[in-house]
Design a protein that fits this description.
This protein is of the alpha+beta class and 85 residues long. Helix content is 19%, strand content 35%.
Length: 85
């Protein structure tokens, strides 16, 4: 099944984990969305971190796809679509 978009969300540091980005797909019906958690890379800016996290999700769940930029930012989340190479 093709998904329309993936969402990236920043999660700040806790006492046991560093900053990270959580990437999930849009959910359909009673299906659990697949997700990937990517550590924050301090060498990148915020936009680059979100793009890199979205690409990590694609590499895991949709090999051969590349994230399309720019993404759409809404309510503290970023949304991305992708294209096949």
């Amino acid at each position: 099944m093709t998904r329309a978009s993936i969402r990236t969300r920043y999660a700040g540091p806790t006492n046991t984990r560093g900053s990270r980005i959580i990437v999930t797909e849009d959910s359909w019906g009673d299906q659990r969305p697949r997700r990937v958690i990517v550590s924050w890379d301090h060498a990148l800016n915020a936009t680059q971190n979100h793009v890199a996290a979205a690409q990590a999700w694609l590499d895991t769940h949709n090999a051969g796809a590349r994230v399309e930029t720019p993404g759409l930012e809404f309510a503290h989340d970023c949304y991305f679509t992708w294209e096949m190479e």
